[in-house]
Design brief:
alpha+beta
């Protein structure tokens, strides 16, 4: 005999509907959180909030945050929900300035995070770590990116352009040329560069497609379902990290990076060799703070290796993405490509064929072209912060509770026609000195802004510009049948990544200066 009614089937239906109703009530209990505080909120869907397109892998996290920005036009900020949790999107440039700079003491931590026990490499690296440990480590690592250090790095980087030339020569690009997947070419080049300048390693990615370093790099940024779930958890559900156990670098790459970097560090200590690179600096910190703990972080073991791991991954991925998207836009805009090649060839000719640090730093059109690429394709299209204390939002009655996630859509602001008319158009002249002065501040920040901006920004730009010059001085890039027009981004990617590869036709070009 059934418990509630005479029928087991009806009892089961009643229990199921009761559980469903209880789940519904639980997952919607926080809805209207923002309305109660006088904040406009985007209408959430039960169980998933505003996050449905990301759950179904229809949109990338960057596109999700950008859509929030576009749906809240005219508002300084808007509330939204990821499942049942309330988040705030800030879209007013002046308020962005407060979050990133003026009130940095309240918003000094990223919302993203991993579990310190299950993923120490992800937890303890400079990109992810929290204050006060972050501030102390950032201060220690900053000296490696001075102009003097970058010039010394450049001497190692420019040597690798020979391998890039050999790589292109292997395809016999005379005549009509050949179709190449340029993201892979660029990533191999930047893998070789970051391996050399930061770690003293010969990655050999350009000349050996099966290079272990390149394979590890591919694995970290291969956005299958598991990697997409890892990054979505880290950036949007860090409180679940201890249960879902995502790996920031991936399980296999974490093991490899831990092994290879300890091997490099120990070999460098044993030999006494000095290269003035990241490894030397990490060894100095290891010896200086031996047996000491700095705000929960120890400059030894995984905490030390974590810094090498994040510089490797960030060092090759962001630069290669910028290079590849720049070549894509130049292929779509042959007049811009012609203008840039003329500037490059004139500079190379004037410099007697040599590529130097000073020459690259004094090419204004190249700088404008790269800046416009970063506007359209910022490596990470959103910024995340969390309020470390209760915070009164300036010029409003809104008070944010402690631990409120705050997001900023970098991509949304970069495509806002109020700041960048005809935002889909690729126009380097947006970055003339006059044009930059005419725009409000805090509407363009491809590497973040304030104290928490990208520490390797100058190195990343240097790598990207060197790669673009090295390829463009001898080659022309045009679209082909496999070129995606318009560009389609990978909906599973946390970084800005082209879906299915970035194919262009590459052929040998005339090298006569204008």
């Amino acid at each position: 005999m059934a418990v509630i009614t005479p029928y087991w089937g009806l009892d089961g239906l009643i229990v199921f509907m009761s559980l469903l109703m209880a789940a519904y009530m639980f997952m919607t209990r926080k809805f209207k959180y923002w309305l109660k505080r006088g904040v406009t909120e985007l209408s959430p869907t039960p169980f998933v909030g505003n996050f449905v397109d990301c759950v179904l892998l229809r949109k990338s996290n960057t596109e999700f945050v950008r859509d929030l920005y576009e749906q809240s036009k005219g508002l300084p900020y808007v509330g939204f929900y990821v499942f049942d949790q309330p988040y705030l999107l800030v879209r007013d440039p002046e308020l962005v300035k407060h979050v990133l700079v003026k009130d940095f003491n309240v918003f000094s931590d990223r919302f993203a995070g991993t579990d310190e026990k299950n993923d120490r490499l992800g937890y303890a690296n400079l990109f992810m770590m929290k204050n006060p440990g972050w501030k102390h480590l950032r201060t220690k690592l900053t000296p490696i990116f001075t102009s003097g250090k970058l010039k010394k790095m450049f001497e190692l980087m420019v040597v690798l352009t020979t391998d890039l030339d050999k790589h292109f020569e292997s395809y016999n690009l005379e005549g009509d040329g050949k179709v190449l997947e340029m993201k892979e070419v660029c990533a191999s080049f930047t893998t070789d560069m970051i391996g050399s300048v930061a770690f003293g390693l010969k990655a050999n990615a350009l000349l050996d497609p099966k290079s272990t370093f390149r394979q590890i790099g591919r694995e970290i940024f291969t956005y299958n379902f598991i990697r997409s779930l890892d990054f979505t958890t880290i950036f949007f559900f860090p409180n679940l990290a201890k249960y879902l156990k995502p790996k920031f670098f991936g399980k296999g790459p974490s093991m490899y990076l831990r092994s290879v970097f300890w091997s490099v560090i120990n070999q460098r200590i044993k030999s006494g060799e000095k290269r003035n690179d990241l490894i030397d600096l990490l060894i100095e910190l290891k010896e200086q703070y031996k047996d000491e703990t700095i705000d929960g972080f120890k400059l030894d073991g995984d905490d030390l290796v974590a810094q090498a791991a994040i510089f490797f991954t960030g060092g090759f991925e962001t630069s290669s993405t910028t290079m590849a998207f720049t070549l894509y836009e130049l292929a779509l805009n042959p007049e811009i490509q012609k203008t840039l090649r003329t500037e490059i060839l004139n500079a190379v000719d004037k410099n007697e064929g040599k590529l130097t640090y000073d020459m690259i730093m004094t090419l204004p059109y190249l700088d404008m072209v790269v800046s416009e690429t970063l506007r359209k394709y910022p490596p990470l299209g959103f910024l995340d912060r969390v309020s470390c204390a209760e915070y009164k939002v300036p010029n409003s009655d809104l008070v944010l509770e402690k631990d409120t996630p705050v997001f900023i859509s970098m991509s949304g602001m970069h495509y806002d026609p109020e700041f960048f008319p005809e935002p889909e158009k690729f126009d380097p002249l947006r970055f003339t000195d006059e044009a930059k002065r005419s725009r409000p501040n805090y509407t363009y920040f491809p590497f973040g802004d304030g104290p928490h901006n990208c520490i390797g920004m100058r190195l990343g730009l240097l790598q990207a510009k060197l790669g673009i010059i090295a390829m463009m001085k001898d080659h022309e890039f045009t679209v082909c049948e496999k070129t995606r027009i318009p560009m389609v981004l990978d909906p599973k990617g946390i970084t800005t990544t082209c879906l299915g590869g970035l194919y262009l036709n590459v052929r040998k070009a005339a090298t006569t200066a204008g």
